């Protein structure tokens, strides 16, 4: 006989946890299925450990910009201390604290690999091979996330490259690290390991880094990486990889005809939905693809409206905070409330924790123009703001607003500069709330802070 719950959530990462907790808070019984660590990728192998690796270097960089402080610096980062701090922040890869939280949230944790076994049914196989059948009265929620995409480069898989897990969890600093990719994972980890003493080469297929953002973002980050000692190779591809036995020195042949040798090879070239072994075929969906959903996060093509998918697994927006946003909506919808997801396509905030930081929300200028919107943009040098000058010397930056001229609302905002991530939520509120420029004139920024750039942007834009 199956164990019956109102809701069965497959995947115990932050998205699954939020979906389950929201439904449980509405009085529903919830089973949360997870075969690894509760808390998922973000807590142990992505967001938290990568930022733990990046923050010490950022803090040191900032101190060096302040007269009187930089003179007190006696040496480089202590790599062993940074790695110990990372381990502490991921709770030494134990999820006991997460399990206690789940208990307080009234979630029944079921350990094992969960997969669909027909309508409203989930089969869970534990590590010892035992199986348990679960049945959902109301809904099954898929929140299994995504996994790294490993491209079909000859010899790459056999070389046993790092992905984000090894890239955030390595126990030793490699003497030479070669990174494939030009996205967020690639640039963040390239800078992190360079700051800990590794010789880093970044190989990027395209003409710029971070191509989904405003063009100046990639330019500024590439400049910062090069200044820190990272070798950045643009318009370059890896054509083959050699690593006999999958260990030791790795040799990468490049499209330029050159070769690069390294002690570790990191691949940061995108992610794909984790649906291969999820039992999608038992409900008429195709394994290996993202689960398409409507704005209530219900799976399309499944009769009865009982199957939901939120987070990376649906392919709408591969960011932890947006997965959690979708999860909260899923919990509300299952509980009978009216809810609809739209921020994940209109007002998505993202911070890249390099130094300088990058913070972005909403549409870029190119995206807005492609959508046929009446666009006007305005830029301002963050280094001319008094708050930035007080923050330290030589801390320039750039800010940009994308404005709908007809409605006079902000469609998108991008900031590059020191700790600009802490300024992003104001821009997110402006975009999500469609706050008019006329109203923003009355949102007075404190002096002397970097947030005064909002006033300068409005002054540049004009009345």
From TrEMBL:
Residues 348-454 form the Pyridine nucleotide-disulphide oxidoreductase dimerisation domain. Keywords: FAD, Flavoprotein, NAD, Nucleotide-binding. Its cofactor is FAD. FAD binds at residues 51, 114, 144-146, 312. Belongs to the class-I pyridine nucleotide-disulfide oxidoreductase family. This is Mercuric reductase, truncated. NAD(+) binds at residues 181-188, 270. Residues 5-319 form the FAD/NAD(P)-binding domain. The keyword RNA-binding does not apply. The lineage of its organism: Bacteria, Pseudomonadati, Myxococcota, Myxococcia, Myxococcales. PANTHER family: MERCURIC REDUCTASE. Binds 1 FAD per subunit. GO terms for molecular function: flavin adenine dinucleotide binding; NAD(P)H dehydrogenase (quinone) activity.
